[in-house]
Amino acid sequence: MKRSPRPRVMVLSALGGAVLALPLLAVPAQAAPASPSPAPRARTQAADEAAQKRVTGYWTRDRMRSATPMERLFRAKKQSAKDAVRRGLEQVLPPSTKALPSTGDTWTGGGAVARTAGRVFFTYQGRNASCSGDAVTSANRSTVITAGHCVKLDGAWHTNWVFVPGYKDGDRPHGTWTARQTLATPQWTATEDISYDVGAAVVNPLDGRRLVDAVGGQGIAFNQPRRQTMYAFGYPAAAPYDGSTLTYCSGRAINDPLLSSGIGLACDMTGGSSGGPWFLSFDEGTGSGIQNSVNSFKYNFLPTHMFGPYFGADAQNLYNKAQAA
Fold first, then answer.
1. Rounded to the nearest 5 degrees, what angle is found at the Cα of 303, between the Cα atoms of 298 and 309?
2. Is the pLDDT at 286 greater than 80, yes or no?
3. Which of 86-100, 179-193, 221-235 is predicted least confidently?
4. Which of 84, 200, 247, 272 has CB atoms 3.0–4.6 Å from 237's, for a disulfide?
5. H or E element that contains 51
6. Cα angle vertex 64, ends 131, 124, to 5°?
7. How far apart are CA 46 and CA 142, in angstroms?
């Protein structure tokens, strides 16, 4: 089978690649799926106690500090062309809240997001790498949402996968949570389609507790109206950031006018922030919101904006499979 050419975008693991202009792409506001969505794909990770101890022991403080921001390693391959992301039924439409404008400031507000958001560490092609992720409400109380390229890339699933909620300057205040399973949308698994760059992990209990019981879980929504006010969080680790602190951007989202069916936000975050959550109805006082996308990629010619996948029916299917695992 002939491989599709790589699109000229830098996915937040590859901030240095050259980008050429491509034709503009119209993105429909919504499109009902013509057929049932394909099933999400999954990989078993540290499923037994011995594997969990091995993975936890692997991630020393020095290895976490020296992990490569995934954006330096990842090149997106195939976009959805003129196809819109599958859209299903709206699931959540909470009231709006005020916005505190930011394009990349350290989050000092504390609250729930300072516990649920965290750094993701894994081994990719023999190299230690990092992304970001977020604990969400789920039936198994053990689900983390991240970017697809933070669980699988270039045909191989990452190994030694862990989630460190509330990471701050090398400290792990809520522990290191090993994944027993990682998952991605079928479109990402098959062709690494940037419009479906959504991943998830189901983590093992730690000290007899499940993740959401220990740190809480943010809400999550699918098939929501576009162009809403959103907050994006992550742990950028490429200059001028160093991955030590939780960073955020906020403003009104736009539609990606070029290669994907996703959404964009004015944001200066760099590599390492991939997989960090985007929230609707974010409350600055409590640090709580409704997750509705993740940091995914930037265009080299538009470094002032971050783009993320629209959470449609396939992201919803992924979440449902993860929370049931």
1. 25
2. yes
3. 86-100
4. 272
5. helix 49-58
6. 55
7. 14
**Cα–chain-centroid distance for residue 63?**
21
Q: Where does 211-318 show beta strands of DSSP type E?
A: 219-220, 229-234, 247-252, 254-255, 263-266, 277-283, 288-294, 297-299, 302-308
Confidence at 54, pLDDT banded by 50, 70, 90: confident
* Rounded-to-integer distance, Cα 47 and Cα 62, Å: 25
**Residue given tokens 């390693």 in the structure block:** 73
Q: Is the dihedral of CA 14, 236, 165, 140 positive or negative?
A: negative
| Six-digit token string for 23 | 């034709």
pLDDT-derived band at 92, boundaries 50, 70, 90: low
At a CB cut-off of 8 Å and minimum separation 6, what does 243 contact? 65, 67, 69, 119, 130, 235, 236, 237, 272
CA–CA distance, 184 with 170 (Å, rounded to integer): 28
Q: Which amino acid is at 254?
A: I
Burial 76-114 (b: 16+ CB within 10 A, else e): bbbbbeeebbbbbeeeeeeeebeeeebbbeebebebbbb
- Reply yes or no: is the peptide bond before residue 240 cis, omega within 30 of 0: yes
Structure tokens at 311: 């959470």
Task: Output 117 or 23, whichever has higher pLDDT.
Answer: 117
